[in-house]
Amino acid sequence: MSDKIFSPRAPEPVGPYPHARRVGNLLFLSGVGPRKRGGGVIPGVTFGENGEIVSYDIEAQCLSVFENIKYILEDAGSHWENIVDVTVFLTNMKRDFHVFNRVYGEHFAGISPARTTVEVGALPTPIAVELKVIAKID
């Protein structure tokens, strides 16, 4: 049995997919970025006159991603401590990995999920980080 999860607090998906799917006692989150719900504001991103990214703050984006993940987990009946696997997508590994790794360590201390981090050329919206998460549901 598989259930689709839509969180009323997380940002709206940018495509035809749910925030997560529940299969048995596992919760598979779709890629979660830092956008805010209702308008697509991206914390830490400064845009130029033509809509191009002028600068971004990777720490602000990470904190927003973590908040969005917490919303989805809680709305699905799980919680942060139940995360068992994380896949991280960064658009600039060289520039952002050390900051991401520090912020990640502060928020995942004691949880120790498995983790993979990869660099990608782009993400679907003008963001620098996205996480794919698997969690258990008690």
Characteristic terms for this protein:
138 residues; alpha+beta; 60s Ribosomal Protein L30, Chain: A; 6-stranded mixed β-sheet; two-stranded antiparallel ribbon; globular
Structure characterization notes:
By secondary structure, the protein is α+β, with helices and mostly antiparallel strands. It has one domain (2-136): 60s Ribosomal Protein L30, Chain: A, CATH 3.30.1330.40. The protein is 25% helix and 30% strand. The chain has helices at 58-75, 93-108, and strands at 2-5, 20-23, 26-29, 45-47, 53-56, 83-90, 114-119, 129-136. Strand 2 and strand 3 form a beta hairpin. The longest helix is centred in the middle third of the chain and has 18 residues, at 58-75.
Task: Summarize the SSE layout with pairings.
Elements: E1 2-5, E2 20-23, E3 26-29, E4 45-47, E5 53-56, H1 58-75, E6 83-90, H2 93-108, E7 114-119, E8 129-136
Helix pairs in contact: 1-2
Question: How would you briefly describe this protein structure?
Answer:
The protein is an alpha+beta fold. 25% of the residues lie in helices and 30% in strands.
Q: How much beta, percentage-wise?
A: 25-35%
Global Rg? 15 Å
Question: Major β-sheet, in short?
Answer: 6 strands, mixed
Number of strands: 8
Can you tell me the number of structural domains? 1
Shape-level CATH architecture: 2-Layer Sandwich
Lateral strand order in the biggest sheet: 1-2-3-8-6-7
Number of helices: 2
* Uncertain residue segments: none
Q: What would the average pLDDT be, to the nearest integer?
A: 95
CATH C-level: Alpha Beta
CATH topology: 60s Ribosomal Protein L30, Chain: A
Give the N-terminus to C-terminus distance in angstroms. 16 Å
Summarize the helix and strand pattern as letters. EEEEEHEHEE
Q: For this structure, what is the CATH homologous superfamily?
A: RutC-like
Helix content, binned percent = 10-25%
Approximate shape? globular
User: What would you call the structural class?
Assistant: alpha+beta
